[in-house]
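Example 3.
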Amino acid sequence: MSLSAIFVHPLGLLAQDAFPFWALLRSGNRGDLINGLIGSSAAAIVVIGVIVVVALLTRYRAWRPLWFDWLTSTDHKRIGIMYVVIALVMLARAIIEAILMRAQQADGLGGGFLSPDHFAQLFSTHGTIMIFFMVMPFLTGLINYAVPLQIGARDVAFPVLNSISLGLTAAGAGLVMISLVVGEFSTGGWFGYPPYTEALYTPGVGVDYWIWALSVTSIGTTLTGINFAVTIYKKRAPGMTLYRMPLFTWTALCTAILMIFAMPPLTVATLQLALDRYLGFHYFTNGLGGNQMNFANMFWLFGHPEVYILILPGFGIFSEVFSTFSGKALFGYKSMVWAAMSIAFLSFLVWLHHFFTMGQSGHINAAFGIASMFIGIPTGVKVYDWMATMFRGRVRFGVPMIYAIAFLFLFVIGGITGVMLANPILDYQVHNTVFLVAHFHNVAVPGVLFGMLAGYTYWFPKAFGFRLNERWGKISAYCWIFGWMGAFFPLYVLGLMGLPRRSVAYEQARYVPMEIVAFVGALVVGAGLASLVIQLWVSIRQREQNRVYVGDPWDGRSLEWATSAPPPEYNFPVIPIVNDRDAFTAAKEFGMGYQEPDEYVDIEMPKNSALGPVFGGTGFLLAFGLVWHIWWLVILAALVAIVALIVRGFQRETVQIIPAEQVRREHQRWVHAARAAQPITRGKEGTSANRGRAALETVGAPT
Ligand code: HEM
Ligand SMILES: [Cu+2]
């Protein structure tokens, strides 16, 4: 490329038309007007949101703490919380889009109010966001927060890398958000199949936004996988053998391994697609030796393990919740571990069930169909173990447990429909109908999203030192659960009736009643989202009466409950020694829950680093430049990132020392408060008397 090409068009392809607002002003007919209005309002929400955040930060003089306490922090707990914040913002957007899609289809007999292009952008952003920018950050955030605490570590293995991963995820999410304001998003679905997404058939910047958002995040996620795996292998407290790790840590390990092996095929596939689009390569176009099936294979070689990346941490959270809220050790611990590991392994052997109908031989379909059905076996083992955990336990119906029980019922239905789809003969019948949409939401929402929300409720008091409001939590949970049923059970019926997925409109009046039920269901889901926001608001206002500074509000069993809420930066004043599964329960039973050690020593912790936010910022600008062909911006951003890396290489002081005296003071203050706190029985758990000190109860019954 010549220099002039770089500098002649300083803004690349970026022009007035890129703003939905202009399109709105220039358009004539009513349809364009509605679509333009919706698009412009979405853009306005993003812009106003940014302005409000900037104004609030300025008003409360929060820029300095934002930078020093949060953005540059290498503390796994803060990084985890920032991941969850990103996830919740993106969840709100993707749910609103889902409601809009359901509204369109309810009104879809012969038309509806959205243009096909607009509808296609909606399902593409909804799917992309839910998978990559909602669930992935959510589970990464929860793992980041809880796992080092569960294994008795001070931090993850590579704290600065952790912050870089967060930066890259934020860059990808930012890219999806800015596509609302400038330009458009892909219309090619969350999987972006060529040849449709090739430049010849879909010019414009939408697909490029999709490509770069995914590339940036998938690199971050691969790094996260490495970080978590090394952390779990290397940083466990003395005595914590693999078979003493809490189940959530186990599933985090499986997920980390899946991330390491599954993300690279995606990164490579999207980069190859970029080469096709930008430089006229022919990886995925017929002619000159290309073949779109290469993309399908690579995408699903990532895509199928991905769904287990999403769901395994959910399984882990439910395992913790079933055990804690039944007051019993998890039933069948080892079978749970082996089931999770088998699922992770099998997940690499089934990708082809995503294109049963694309013309490979019957033998291949049969092999992949049978392999897919095998996954039902370890999953079934887990379901029985969860049920047996509750059996004769002291079951309490707190909010996390409500999600867990709803999950158990709904997930079994989703699993059965999955086994149905794994049969190629049946799949031919319902392929590409909304039956499939019903199936995967039947596993993704109860299994993944409910798991994340249960984890959010479960660990929130640990992270912030006060419990979330129970009443609003229950309202929210019931709205999610029953709204979900209303929104998705009709889709099974519609699928069997033959309604294709991703239909902007249809011609058969018999679809309408079920579509309306589904729309009402989606509205109830929206109410669940709203209640979640209200819950947070109410809880922050009532935080004084719900404080649980002692840190163990639910009578927890694993080590994260053995420290104050919120925990100190260094997690544990003295690294705990583990002799048992359910280490904290064992300690409490021996009366060793709140002890002072004989001596305190200095603690070495990583210092803050600007590398994470710098990589986030430059990653975002680099990707933005690539989308709009603003080449000088691409080069500049890459240079800044490289320089930042070199500067970091010369930095000598990367750790700070927390003096023993300070550790002693903080710990003693907490131990005294903990001993003075009134032990709370499980019956009073939900009252404001709960300060996070659990009374010893003989739990469960002899088995
Ligand atoms: C309860 C809240 C949700 C509702 C109401 C909802 C609704 C929808 C709708 C209406 C579609 C379009 C289906 C079609 O075009 O026929 C869709 C597609 C999709 N959803 Fe959801 N969804 C929800 C939650 C989720 C979650 C939690 C995930 C992922 C973990 C997810 C992932 C997807 C994906 C991957 C697609 C496919 C997009 C495509 O076809 O390209 N959704 N959803
Ligand atoms: Cu699959």
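The chain has a mean pLDDT of 94. The beta strands are 603-606, 655-658.
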